[in-house]
Amino acid sequence: NQLTVFNSQSTIQVGGRWNRSKGRVERPFLGIISGLVVNGARILELASASPDRVVITIRGDVQPVPPGSLLDRTSPLQRMQQ
């Protein structure tokens, strides 16, 4: 069962693959990641609200954006479609 396998994970890598031996991110993602949901949990929002429960390690050229800040810059029509 896929959920059983995924629920046992302690680490989720998003946006690229961290190569420990080379000390760098391989195949990095270029763009914006938002609304990351894993098994019904909104991971990025959970990490922001509960830093003691969820630890996010940022590697590479990443700029975290506060929740809601992207929505404030979009038109009402675009907000409705998100």
Automatic annotation (TrEMBL):
Gene3D superfamilies: 2.60.120.200
Superkingdom per UniProt: Eukaryota
Name of the protein described by the UniProt record: Laminin G domain-containing protein
Organism this protein belongs to: Bracon brevicornis
